[in-house]
């Protein structure tokens, strides 16, 4: 089952603009993670936010988490052509829930040079 | 050079044939996972293993089998019972559920399986 659903499914922006992707999930979580996938490749971990955190930064990435709304957002500032990829949110349930990540359907980001 | 290695990169299966996808890691991770990804879709969990000689079914285990005889290896067999096997298969590992509550996954580069 898909725990997370990303919105929008696809996003096209110009280099230098900000990109915002949203993720909604259904059950309680231990943490929420964001991953990036270049076409035809494996996923790479970007950032993890715990259920008791509201905001986290890493370089040009900013993640927010609202557990009352069961949603998260990923903001990429000053985007570059190299940011073109698919972005996925993933969640882990607290014990005794399944200790494996459940992924959303992803947002495909295209950054035009 | 530590990491997680999947092979082959491309694999073709004939009707009625079982095929095995390899996944090896040298990160000393306890937990390993198999995910399936269909075009334009997210990842769905097939099987996962938290420790050697133990594994659990994920959301779409039917038609697949795994083994975990060694910590470093978690091969996935796609059996003839899997009627729609064409997909991109991703293997991942993590430190292990008993060591950390906040864990990230390390992924291999994937195997594209197609039916002839």
Write the SSE topology.
The complex is a heterodimer of chains A (113) and B (116).
Chain A: E1 4-7, E2 10-14, E3 19-25, E4 31-37, E5 43-50, E6 55-58, E7 61-66, E8 71-76, E9 85-92, E10 102-103, E11 107-112
Parallel strand pairs in A: 2-11
Antiparallel strand pairs in A: 1-3, 3-8, 4-5, 4-9, 6-7, 7-8, 9-10, 9-11
Chain B: E1 4-7, E2 10-13, E3 19-25, E4 31-37, E5 43-51, E6 54-57, E7 64-66, E8 76-78, E9 87-94, E10 106-107, E11 111-115
Q: Characteristics of this structure?
A:
heterodimer; A: 113 residues; mainly beta; 5-stranded antiparallel sheet; B: 116 residues; 7-stranded mixed sheet; 4-stranded antiparallel sheet; globular
The largest sheet of chain B is: 7 strands, mixed
**Percent of residues in beta strands of chain B:** over 45%
Number of strands of chain A: 11
Largest interface between protein chains, with number of residues from each side:
A-B, 28 and 30 residues
Biggest beta-sheet profile of chain A: 6 strands, mixed
Helix/strand/pairing category of chain B: mainly beta
How large is the share of residues in beta strands of chain A?
over 45%
Query: Roughly how much helix do the residues of chain B carry, as a percent range?
Result: under 10%
Extract low-pLDDT stretches of chain A: none
Oligomeric form: heterodimer
Low-confidence stretches of chain B: none
Through-space gap between termini of chain B: 35 Å
Rg of chain B, alpha carbons: 14 Å
Radius of gyration of chain A: 14 Å
How does this model look, in words?
The complex is a heterodimer of chains A (113) and B (116). By secondary structure, chain A is an all-beta fold. Chain A has strands spanning 4-7, 10-14, 19-25, 31-37, 43-50, 55-58, 61-66, 71-76, 85-92, 102-103, 107-112. In chain A, strand 6 and strand 7 form a beta hairpin. In chain A, 37% of the residues are buried. The model of chain A has no long low-confidence stretch (mean pLDDT 92). Chain B has 116 residues and is an all-beta fold. Chain B has no helices and eleven strands. In chain B, strands 2, 4, 5, 6, 9, 10 and 11 form a seven-stranded mixed beta sheet that branches. A four-stranded antiparallel beta sheet of chain B has the order 1-3-8-7, with no helix packed on it. The model of chain B has no long low-confidence stretch (mean pLDDT 92).
